[in-house]
Amino acid sequence: MNIVLASSSPRRLQLLARLGITPGRIVSPAIDETPLKTEVPRAYALRLAIAKAQAVTREPGEIVLAGDTTVALGRRILPPADTPDLQRELLGKLSGRRHHVLSAVCVIDAAGTARTRLADTVVAFKPLSPAEIDAYVAGGEGLGKAGGYAVQGYAEAFVRFLSGSHSGVIGLPLFETRALLKTAGLPLA
Questions:
Q1: How far is Cα 53 from Cα 48, in angstroms, rounded to an integer?
Q2: Residue 183, SS3?
Q3: Whether the Cβ atoms of residue 182 and residue 188 lie closer than 8 Å to each other
Q4: Where in the sequence numbering do the catalytic residues fall?
C-alpha cells in the first residue's frame, strides 16, 4: 500500500522514517488554518488534521496521512511564530508555565474511511529570562513553529516537565500514528 503524506514538514517525514515508512507521495495541502470563533484547541487540531487529509486526492489503494500540531495555553490557541517579535511574545507567555501540545492525526484508508487520534502532551517550561528568549529567537530555531519553539532542538533545555508524546510535540505522535496505519491495513510489525 502506498502512503501519501499530506504535509511538507520535514519533521513529520523524519518521524515516519522511525516507523520504517517512506511515503510514496508528499502533498502539501493548502487549507485555511484560521481558528473558528469560540473553537477550542482540541477541536481545532482535529479539524485541521481532517481537512488536510481530505484536501489530498487519493489514488486507488493509497492511504492518506495528515497531522496538525497545536500549542494551547488554557483555551487559547497559540499561532505559529511567523516573526521574531511574535516568537518573543509567545515564549514570554510560555515562560514558567504549563501548556498543552495537541497533535492530531487523520488517516484515510484505501476504502475512504477516515479515522483520527489526538495526543495531548503537557509541557512545562522553566521561567525564561529576557536574555534567554532573545538568544533563542536570534538562533532562528523556532521561527514558523507552533508556540515559537522546537522541542527537538535547543528549546528542549527549557522543558522542566513533559507528560505525553515527545514525538507529538515534534509534530507526529508515533504511537497514535502507528495504530491508525495498522487499522488502515498497513502491515507494520
A1: 9
A2: helix
A3: yes
A4: 68
